[in-house]
Predict the 3D structure of the following.
Amino acid sequence: MADIDPIQPSDAELLELSKAGDSVAFRHLVDRFHGQLLATATGMLGPGTEAEEVVQETLIRFHRALQRFEGRSTLGTYLTRITMNEALKVINRRNRWYSRFLSRDDPDRPTVDPVEELGMCSLEQNERIDCIREAVQALKPEFRSVVVLRFLNDYSTEECANVLGIPPGTVMSRLSRALDKLGPTLKGLHENG
Amino acid sequence: MKMDKNDSWNLFEELSDPGISLERKAALEAQLNEDPVLRDRLSTFRILQQWPGLDAADRPFVNSRAVMDQILLEKSGNAVDLEIKRTFPWVAAAALAAAVVLAVINIETMGNNAESTLDAVFGLSIPTLEDSLLTDL
């Protein structure tokens, strides 16, 4: 067995120990990925309890499936994929709720892409993040997911494609379209930035 | 010549590469700025590149303890379930064996004093006249 660096053990080392029932090693893995997963979930759902619940569900599911994890993708990619799927489930539930409780002619029902309804941002530095989050939140889930993965998670096009299970060309096309949709809203940030 | 979305995206990726030379960067920026659509897309791309830094500064304290507590709670629940599953056959077998032994003892003890074998198994003797009178009361 390979020597384990006691200061900064690798993901694979922590994974092996976790599989053997070492809960301290699993706690290290949770600490290592929790922030990144929460950023992904928050990027998809906005800040709040829903995003935290998604991360919790992701890590609980990971713990249950620990023995079945074969390492075909990196641990980060694997966990991000679960988080993304859980977040998309939450968005689908929200959309179902909207379609169930708001009739087609309800004035509260969005008629155009919500991002097109947002005004141009013109904000102070500490509010820029809220503006970016709000603009990304208003994107449709298929665009939001690629933007979150590419910009917030700093994934390459191939990694985004791997997480979402779509071709790299589709990722690039969605990213370009997402930038076109976000442009008018975020233009103010560029001018003020 | 108009670029398709994938080609233009590859230019953005190249531009954001930290190892890009200054000459190449200037050439790419000039190329992208020629097209108003690509120019707007590039400015949005740059704003979104700031997102991780802004998000990290704004991120609340990460409390992974709650997640671990939930996982450990589930784990202990699973451990109880496993223990029940493991011990149940033994407990059930012991209870059955005790019942059989008790039935055998009853049959041995009651023998001729029971109306039937089933009554003997359950330790029921033939009711006497006194029993009948007490029941009637």
